[in-house]
Fold these 2 entries.
Entry 1:
Amino acid sequence: MDNIDKSVFLKCIECPTLGWISKRNRIKRTRTVNDEFMYYEFKVIKQKAQDLFSSASDAKCKDRMDSIKRTQELINDAEVEIILNPQFICGNLFASFDIIKRCKDKAAGWDIIEVKVGKKNKLKYIEGVSFKILTLINLGMQINSVSIMHINSKFRLGMDDKECFELSDVTDKVDWQTTQFVLMAQDIEKQLYAEEVPEAAIKRKCKNCPLFLECVGAKIKNPIFELPRLSALQLQELLSKNIYSINDISEDFPLTPHQKIVADCIKNNKTYVSPNLKGELQKIPQPFYYLDFESVTTAIPLYPDVPPHSQLLTQFSVHKCLEIDEVAEHFEYIADPKINNQKEIAQTLIACLGKEGAIITYSGSEKLSLLHLANAYEDLKESLLAIVERIIDFEYLIRNNYYNVEFGGHSSIKTILPVLVKDMGYDWLEINQGGDAAATFAFMALGIYTQEACEKAKEHLLRYCKQDTFAMVKIHKALLEIASAEMV
Ligand code: SF4
C-alpha cells in the first residue's frame, strides 16, 4: 500500500530524503537475532496487555484493508466498548493502534492505550502516538485521553498479569505534539509523494543514518562525525559554518584534547602514540587476566525476584597470561539459562582471577557489573571489590594514548582489533555482536530453542566471548610493540 505510516512520517521530519527512500522500502538491512528477540518480546507484551481486556473485540484480519473495514464496523457498533488492533486510513495516512476504549460518556470520544516495551516515556513514543492521533483527528474522531502502558517496575515473575502493567497519561504531551504535526502534515505529504527524491542536505541526523556513505557522506572526506564524542553544540556550530570535513576545522575551534588528537591525525594522515604509552603498559602488573562478560536485559524478567529491565550476567571468559601473548590458561563460564545464576557467576569468577595481577577489560561495563554484584552479595563483597581495584580498562588506555586514522573515530574492540592485529576480527563467528549474544541467551532461557539448538547456541556464545578476551591478549602485544618501536 502506498500510504504514509508512523515510521515514514517521523523519518521525513528528520530528513525528507530519508523519509522518501524509506517510503519506497529502499533501505536494506539484515535482520539480526537481536531484532528477532525485540519483535518477539513486543509481541508477548502486547498480547499480555490485550488479554487484560477480555471483553474487547479484535479488529485484526489477515489483510490490512479487511482490518480497516472491520475497525469501522466495530466503531459504528455502539455496543462495542473496547477494540484491539484497530487500523485506520485517512487520505494518505495510515495508523494502527494497540487498544482503543469508547468513553462511557460517548460524546467524550475514545481513550487510546499504546503498549510499550521500554520503561520510560521516550520522546519517540510520544511522537509515534501523536502521528496516529493526527490520523484519527483527520477522520473527525474525538480523543478523550492517551496513555502509554508500560511494564510495572514492581512486577515480579509469578505475579498475576494484572500487576504486570502501569499506565501513564500522556494526553497533554500528545496534544502539543499533534498540533505541531497538523502544521507540518501537508508539507510532509508533498515531500513524500514527490516524483524525485528530495535533495539531501547534511544535518545532525546524518551521523547515525544508514545511508550516510551513499548519500551526503559520499562526497565528504573525513566527515566531522568521525570526531569522538562530538557534542550537539559543537555539531550545530560546525554545520552552521558549513564545515562538514574534519580537514576544514580551524585550529581555534574548541575541541576536547582527545578530539584535537584525532583531528590532528586525520589532517596530517599520521598516527598518534602518546609518550606515556610505554610507561602505562609497563605499569600493568603480571600475571595478566583478560576478562569479558556477556549479559542479558529483558522487559519481562526471566527469573523470579528480578525486577523488569534488570541487566543479568550470563557468561564470562578469562585468558590468563604470565607474560605478554603467552596464554597459560583459559577459563570460561556460561550460566544455565533456566536459573538465575548471578551468585554462581561471581563465585566462579573470584576463583578464576587469583589474588594478584592486572584484570584487563575493554570498556567500563565489567567494572560496573562487578560493583553491582558486590552490592548484591554481602559475603562476596570484599573479594569482588578487590577484583575491581585490579581492573585496567584498555579502551580508556587506548583512547588516551593511541590513535590510528583507520579507527574512523571509534574505539570499540571490534573496530580497533583488525587495525592493530591484522587478520583478526569477528566476521568468522556465528555470533559476533553483544546484542545477538544477549538475544540468543534470552531465547534459551525462555525455552524457545530445542535442546540441540541450545547446545549449539552455547558453543557459539562461548566462542564469541572467548574471542573478546583473546583479542585483548593480542591488542596488548600490539600496543607494546608500537610503544617500543616509538621509543627507538
Ligand atoms: S545521510 Fe543525511 S541527508 Fe542522507 S538520507 Fe541520511 S539523514 Fe538524510
Note: Residues 6-192 form one domain.
Entry 2:
Amino acid sequence: MTEKLFRDLTTLRVGGPIADYRRPTTRAELIDTFRDVSSGRRPWFVLGGGSNIVVSDEEFDGTVIHVATTGIESRENGAKVLVTAQAGESWDHLVAWAVENKLSGIEALSGIPGTVGAAPIQNIGAYGAEFADTFVLLQFVDAGSGEVVTLGPDDLRFGYRTSALKEGRSGLVVSVTLALTKADDSEPIRYGQLATALGVDIGDTVALVDVRRTVLELRASKGMVLSDDPDSVSVGSFFTNPIVSDELSRRLPLDAPRFPLEGERAPVVVPLGADHDFAGFDGNAPDVKLSAAWLIERAGVPRGYSLPGNNAGVSSKHTLALINRGGATAREVIELARYISIRVHDTFGIMLTPEPSFIGFD
Ligand SMILES: Cc1cc2nc3c(=O)[nH]c(=O)nc-3n(C[C@H](O)[C@H](O)[C@H](O)COP(=O)(O)OP(=O)(O)OC[C@H]3O[C@@H](n4cnc5c(N)ncnc54)[C@H](O)[C@@H]3O)c2cc1C
C-alpha cells in the first residue's frame, strides 16, 4: 500500500506521513471505526477536506480517520425544509444542492472548501452569513463514552469562528441538520461588498442563483475558492479578525476599519431643562471587530510577501491568506505566521489568533 501523506490531503499541501490511515465511507463504518480508534491509546485525528489544518512535517504516529460518508436527505416542516447531510459530504456541494432545490439560508456560504462535518467546528462564515444561522442539530459521537448523541445550538455555543467543538469537546460529527426556507430568493443581503457587487442595497433579497454566482466570483477574485490559482494553496484566512475593547480600537489610526459587535446606541436627545433617567446605560461600549488584513498590511507586510529562503508566502490577492508557493514545509509556514504576528504585535500591541487547527506540534 502506498504511504499516505498529510501534504496530499490538505489544501495548504504541508504535513508528514500518516502511520495508520482509514477512510470509512458508510455511517456505520465511520461510527465503528471512530469508537474503535478513540477508545485506544494511540493518537487519532478526524480529517475532512483538510482545508483548515496546518500539519507538522513529522510522521503522525497514530490513526487518521478520513471521513468519506456522503448523502443529503430532506423533509418538509411547515415553511421550512429540514436538510440532513452526512459529515463527509462536500459543504459546497450541499450549498449548490440547496440553491438548485430553491432552498434559501446558506447561499452566501458558497465556495467554502471542506466537508459538512467540519462546518460546525469553527462555525464557518462569510459574506454576512454563518453556519449557526440555519443550524438545527447534529449527530455526534463523544470521544469519551463512544455514545451517539444529538447536539443542538445550546450545546454548541457558536461564536465568531468557534464553537464548543473547537474549544475542547472532542468527538466525531456524523451528520448535520439545517432548517432552510422554501424560496426563489435569498435571505436579505447583509454584507456591503456583496450588495455592491449585486447592485442592490443591504437588506434586499435577490435570486438565489445570483447570490451564489456573485459570491463565487468575489471569492475567486481573492483566491478564496479552491482552483488552480496558486493563491488558493492555503487554509483560507490564516488569522481571525481580532475582537478588542472599544477603548483599544480608538487608539488605532483613524482609517482602521472597525465593526462594533452590537449596533451603536442610538443617541438620546434630552430637551434642555428636562430631567432624564439614563436607566439601562451600563457605560460599556460594545467590543469592536478589527480587520486582521488591514493590521497586517499596515504593519508592513504587503500582499505577495515572503521571507528570504522560505517557500511559504502571503497571497498576492489577500494579506490574510498564507500560501504554499511550492514545496513549503510546515516549519516555513509557521515561521512566516510568527513573523507576521510579531510585526502586528510590535506595531499595534494586538496579538493575532490563528484560525486553523495545528496538528502534530508540541
Ligand atoms: C481557499 C479557502 C477558503 C476558505 N474560506 C473560508 C471562509 O470563507 N469561511 C470559513 O469559515 N472558513 C473558510 N476556510 C476554512 C475551511 O474551509 C473551513 O474551516 C472548513 O469548514 C474546513 O473543513 P474541512 O472538512 O476541510 O476540515 P479539516 O481541515 O479537515 O478539519 C478542520 C477541523 O475540523 C475537525 N473535523 C473535520 N471533520 C470532522 C468531523 N466529521 N467530526 C469532528 N471533527 C471534524 C478536524 O479534526 C479539524 O480539527 C477556507 C479554506 C480555504 C482553503
Note: The two ends are 29 Å apart (CA to CA).
